[in-house]
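Pipeline run #58 for the internal structure catalog. This entry was flagged by the ingest filter as a single-chain record with no existing model, so it goes straight to prediction. Upstream metadata was stripped on purpose; only the residue string is passed forward. Reviewer on rotation: M.T. Logging verbosity set to normal.
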Amino acid sequence: MTIELTIAAAEKIKSMIEKRVEEWLAKSTIEPGEKEYYLNNLGFRFGLEGGGCAGFTYKYGLEEKNDEDVVLNQHGVNIYVDPKSYAYLYGSKIDWKENDFESKFVFDVPKSTGGCGCGSSIGFE
């Protein structure tokens, strides 16, 4: 598998997409007839951008697909990755962890050579 999405992460992303679309409907940002389009086309953007103490920071959130994206679909969730990030993130695992103190996405990136202590920055050779 190229990038693995756990069931827990998929369920969280589906919930986030549904919430976002409902918010847009409530604010009249989208028309009721557009609801299905956005439910089917919003996906999880997973990528990297320069910065942070280890060289790169994670870029993730809900977005629509860009023309050049690598598109993956797992557990009914679209994952959008730009080609440059994909070269570094190939083989990664995206999970969702929740406990009494925090809730967050956790990324296991086998190609990384380290990161910062807070987990928001990642390095590569």
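catalog note: The chain has a mean pLDDT of 92.
catalog note: The beta strands are 4-5, 43-50, 56-63, 70-74, 77-81, 93-98, 103-108, 114-115, 121-123.
status: ready for reviewer M.T.
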